[in-house]
Amino acid sequence: MHIKIENFGDILISRPAGKEAFLGAKAYIFKPIQNTDSIVLDFEGVKVLTPSWADEFISGIKNSYSNKIEFINTDNPSVQASLKTVLN
Amino acid sequence: MISEIIIQNAIENKTNEFKSKIDKFSITRDVFNARLQVYISETSKWLESAVIGELGNNTFDHNFQFLPGFPRGVFFDSSFQDEYIIIADFGIGVLGSLRTVYPEIESDLEAVEKAFTQRISGRYPEQRGNGLKFVIENVQNNSWNFFFQSGSACCNADESGYKFSESNTPLSGTLAILQFL
């Protein structure tokens, strides 16, 4: 399952916004997911990502689904740094 | 390191409640994030903006009341002395936040050291507490300069690392100074 993070905005800063994004995705995007599907988080077009937003979104996925998560198009420096903080 | 002259100037401004720049207080998170979006659109500084966002949003994550008689919300000045970023508030400070769940913490210095070096949060059991480590790590990695004070505890950081110290002039709430080089 391919998720374009940019659909939630290109400036992703606050923890409440990250939580709301996950809850929205859970209700409308992840519904049909199969256990064997990978979840591909595509950060193309994201300009600013904070660890708070990323933590709420990624932790939400990890706590609700056991699917493998992949991260692509992570060249933006704030995306790289935030993912490093959250995933370590 | 942020120079002592700049630090003292910022402390003096905070002690005077930033009265000459009172319009730079954001009373709510929405106002702060909107102002940060303006900064982002003007500068295209993506990583720097993430660091500012973490610091500024901390005010609203950890403060639901502010010192009576003082400005509410977060102060955000992106052009202090032309080249510095100031983020400050009159909230409960780091010790006030962490003591709600870690009453054994005895001092501002202990609280600030833990906040910057451990995954610890006043909002435990929520799994939080990465924000300040993200700040300090990126300050070092990008050769920026950073000063932070809450109560009597200070943290200075630059590309060479970070160190903690105690000030003779305690500050209520928090004060952060950033210099992006």
Structural description of this entry:
The complex is a heterodimer of chains A (88) and B (181). With 88 residues, chain A is of the alpha/beta class. Chain A has helices spanning 15-28, 51-64, 77-87, and strands spanning 2-4, 11-12, 39-42, 48-49, 69-72. Chain A has a three-stranded parallel beta sheet, with no helix packed on it. The longest helix of chain A is centred in the first third of the chain and has 14 residues, at 15-28. Chain A is globular. The model of chain A has no long low-confidence stretch (mean pLDDT 94). Chain B is 39% helix and 27% strand. Chain B is built from six helices and five strands; from the N terminus they run αβααββαααββ. In chain B, strand 4 (145-158) and strand 5 form a beta hairpin. The longest helix of chain B is centred in the first third of the chain and has 17 residues, at 46-62. The A-B interface holds A 11, 13-16, 47-52, 55, 59, 76-78, 81-82, 85-86 and B 29, 33, 36-37, 40, 44, 46-47, 49-50, 53-54, 57, 60-61, 127-128, 130-131, 133-134, 137-138, 141.
Keywords:
heterodimer; A: 88 residues; alpha/beta; three-stranded parallel beta sheet; two-stranded parallel sheet; 3 helices; B: 181 residues; alpha+beta; five-stranded antiparallel beta sheet; 6 helices; 5 strands
Please provide a brief summary of the model.
The complex is a heterodimer of chains A (88) and B (181). Chain A has 88 residues and is of the alpha/beta class. Chain A has helices spanning 15-28, 51-64, 77-87, and strands spanning 2-4, 11-12, 39-42, 48-49, 69-72.
End-to-end gap of chain A: 24 Å
Largest sheet of chain B: 5 strands, antiparallel
Helix content of chain B: 25-40%
- In the sheet with the most strands of chain B, the strands line up as 1-2-3-5-4
Strand line-up across the major sheet of chain A: 1-3-5
> What is the first-to-last residue Cα distance of chain B?
11 Å
Number of strands of chain A: 5
Q: What series of H and E elements makes up the topology of chain B?
A: HEHHEEHHHEE
The best one-word shape of chain B is globular
Q: How much of the polypeptide of chain B forms β-strand, as a percent range?
A: 25-35%
Q: Mind telling me the C-alpha Rg of chain B?
A: 15 Å
Give me the oligomer status.
heterodimer
Structural class of chain B, by secondary structure, is alpha+beta
Low-confidence stretches of chain B: none
Largest interface comes to:
A-B, 20 and 24 residues
Average pLDDT rating of chain A: 94
